[in-house]
Write a structure and sequence with these properties.
mainly alpha; 370 residues; disordered N terminus; three-stranded antiparallel β-sheet
Length: 370
């Protein structure tokens, strides 16, 4: 097997990185800045300066992540994974509660969400484990080990309780295990086990308000002023935008404060009301460019480790995009799942840019030692 070194790629290889990925990220971040400003214009705090700070820091994080040899990061992944688990345990005792979940650390006025760091650490550790296996089809023991790697932080996040955050570990496991090689019969067995675990989660693992969200999703009219209020207002915002929208900062649902969480989870509703179907289509087109660029990086990765890492990171990003865009139109239950590069938030923004930097780092190093 070809030896791997931690040699950094020469500067001439910078021109070989996938420019489509970078351009899509910059365009989405710019749209996010404008939309956050509009969404928070009538709030006590205008979140534009903070979001601009997160984007600026995110760009630095992306460059730093891109400069690291991902093989070195994989070598230290077990340390990063362990640190992530320790933080998830500590946040249960020392965390600051938001939305009923103790999932934040507050340090000198700055807040940090350890579950976001844990997702990156888990992706690195699982990529290292799967890339070290010498079989094209995983056996049951190997699958169980992979699921245990993902399941441990997932359970800790679920205990907070943050079901939306815990859910984000699922696409990470599915994407990487499928690419690593899983037999069809194991997929069927996993589906059956998932149904049983889902029933147990409904009965014993979910809080009352979480069950109410699911019930309201199935029948929003049963609680139009309570749990069904968010999705109802979101649908009104999306529908009232029609083809071209009402214009920047002219949306009634956001400017008149009818739409909750309009700068975070429901920011896509604000964009839809102001820029209409064409605006949403433009954003989804940028996400499509991002996903297709990342997929090309995965396909031309120099080794199995790079392939696994990109697939894991991309799986999380894609699920965020699909779930959030489906949530704002009432296709899936409401959870605290934001949309990448547009929703307001520091920890989430850092993770998005870091994941992008890691993928670009994989792309830069596809020629090293060849």
């Amino acid at each position: 097997m070809q030896a791997i070194t931690d040699e950094r790629p020469p500067l001439r290889h910078l021109s070989s990185i996938h420019g489509g990925l970078v351009l899509a990220v910059l365009a989405l971040a710019a749209i996010g800045l404008a939309t956050v400003h509009s969404a928070s214009a009538e709030m006590v705090t205008d979140y534009l300066p903070r979001q601009a700070l997160w984007v600026g820091m995110g760009l630095v994080v992306m460059l730093v992540a891109m400069s690291f040899d991902y093989h070195v990061l994989l070598d230290f992944s077990i340390v990063l994974y362990g640190a992530g688990l320790v933080m998830l345990v500590l946040v249960l005792a020392k965390g600051v509660a938001h939305g009923g979940a103790a999932n934040w650390f507050s340090i000198a006025g700055w807040q940090f969400q350890p579950s976001e760091f844990a997702k990156l650490a888990t992706a690195l550790f699982l990529a290292r484990y799967l890339s070290g296996l010498n079989s094209r089809i995983l056996d049951l023991r190997q699958i169980a080990a992979g699921l245990a790697i993902v399941g441990t932080p997932m359970v800790l996040v679920g205990i907070e309780p943050d079901m939306g955050g815990a859910l984000m570990f699922t696409p990470l496991a599915i994407g990487m295990l499928l690419v690593a090689g899983v037999r069809v019969r194991w997929l069927v067995a996993a589906l059956l086990i998932g149904m049983v675990l889902g029933a147990a989660l409904w009965s014993y693992g979910m809080k009352g308000y979480q069950r109410q969200r699911v019930l309201t999703f199935l029948s929003p009219t049963t609680d139009p002023l309570g749990a069904g209020y968010q999705v109802r207002q979101s649908k009104i915002a999306v529908g009232s935008g029609e083809l071209t929208g009402k214009g920047y900062m002219q949306g009634t649902q956001s400017q008149l404060r009818f739409l909750p969480a309009r700068h975070t989870d429901f920011i896509l509703s604000v964009l839809a009301e102001e820029w209409g179907f064409l605006g949403v289509l433009t954003v989804l087109g940028l996400y499509a460019a991002y996903v297709s660029s990342a997929a090309r990086i995965a396909m031309r990765a120099r080794d199995r480790a790079g392939l696994m890492l990109v697939v894991g990171l991309l799986s999380m990003q894609v699920f965020h995009i699909l779930y959030n865009s489906s949530m704002v139109v009432g296709f899936v239950p409401i959870t605290g799942i934001p949309i990448p590069f547009i929703s307001y938030g520091g920890s989430f923004m850092m993770v998005n840019f870091c994941a992008t930097g890691l993928m670009l780092g994989v792309d830069m190093r596809r020629y090293v030692n060849r």
